Amino acid sequence: MQNNLIPIIFFILLITATIVIFKKKKRTRQLGFIKSYLFHKSIKNKIYNKHPQLTPDESHLVFRALRDYFWMCNKANRNMVAMPSQIVDEAWHEFILFTRNYEQFCSKALGRFLHHTPTEAMSSPTLAQSGIKRAWRLACAKENIDPNNPKKLPLIFAIDSMLNIPGGFNYSLDCLANKQNSTNSSTGNYCAGHINCASGCAGDSGAINDSDGGFFDGMFDSSGSDCGGGCGGD
Questions:
Q1: What's the N-to-C CA distance of the chain in angstroms?
Q2: Which pTM value belongs to this model?
Q3: Average per-residue pLDDT for the chain
Q4: 51: Cβ contacts below 8 Å, ≥ 6 apart
């Protein structure tokens, strides 16, 4: 009886390994597509027209950050990723309006259509819900930043402040200075040091394996916090 089970077990293991390899190769192709994607010139012109103060290099940063966001959404495996930047959100909006291009991009980059979630106002400069925590961990992973002890902000968290975007989300690593400068959430100043809840909050147990285009492990789904960080994709 045991001898009869060996071929069956071997077959199951072979099928499982084949599926895992296929998914990894698919993920690698998707991430490569995102990295090399060239946005239509008209989309870039829309951002130039809305923000004429931006230099060409600064505009390039906006679309680099948008690619980072799509990378994050790919890694998140259908978990919602909050959008931490106002200017990048504007670029995303303009991209969506090119419906055919956007649909084709989503199919190749994510294997699905990425819907847009309306913007949520931050209820506190120091309380972060799951979507913004997920964005923080993924953005840090993208740039090899320690999310628990960051020495710098990931681009998508830093860009609004870097470019002085009106109404932008401004994150600070100096939580004390941030507290002194932010008396309420309408200022748009947030403490990045609190996003990851390094002092101990529920849901901080996931991990990212980025060495082989591996899968995001569904972290930060605690519902105990109450704030948003901008809009997000589901």
A1: 48
A2: 0.74
A3: 76
A4: 59, 87, 163, 165
